[in-house]
Amino acid sequence: MKRYETIYIVNPNLDADSLKEVVTKFSDLVKKLKGYIVKINEWGKRKLAYEVKRFDKGYYVVLDFCGFPGVVKELERNLNIDDRILKYLTVKIDEEADPEDLIVKGQEKEDKMEGSRNESTEEE
Amino acid sequence: MAFDDKTKRIFIKHKLCRFCADPSLKIDYKESKALAVFTTERGKIIPRRISGNCAKHQRILALAIKRARNIALLPFTTAKIKMKEYREF
After folding, report:
1. Does residue A19 sit within a domain?
2. Which among A30, A70, B27, B74 counts the fewest CB atoms within 10 Å?
3. Is the pTM of this model over 0.95?
4. Is the reported ipTM for this assembly greater than 0.85?
5. Which of B32, B67, B80 faces A89 most closely, judged by CB atoms?
6. Distance from A19 to chain B by nearest Cα, in Å?
């Protein structure tokens, strides 16, 4: 399995519910195609460096997942069809990745982060 | 006289690749602010003879900047400003 990272820009004028719907739509699609989601990172509204489809702002979402090349093809096809998506970019991060290992590692990291936060508050 | 020649000589500062000097620095296309340092005001990539990067890191950096441009994190050009200036003339 390979590890990919897809970053897509959603129409910023959508309300919170439809934004959520877009994000879940594509993460569900990856799951449906037997891909493993490592992380979904929503950056929120950001100014674009240049106008895209006459928008000067965009809602950025970073989707980090593992899967076979077919997943990317299908995901990009769907991103292309959806009118709410302004732009997308897929980058291959790793040739060989073990999804379960990555997911476990991610959780450990989060636990550590939380642990360190707790420690720092205790010190204070 | 010999002394004068030496003092007149322009001292060229040896530039070190900052990514080689600090291996903890990573080049990521998502960090647009870090990449913007290596572009001009016009949005062009600064050549390595000026930035002082080594060939290896300049290649990685150029790829990262191009990716960032593709997803509208960095501008390709600032043509809009250019056009405005042009119209004023």
Report:
1. yes
2. A70
3. no
4. no
5. B67
6. 19
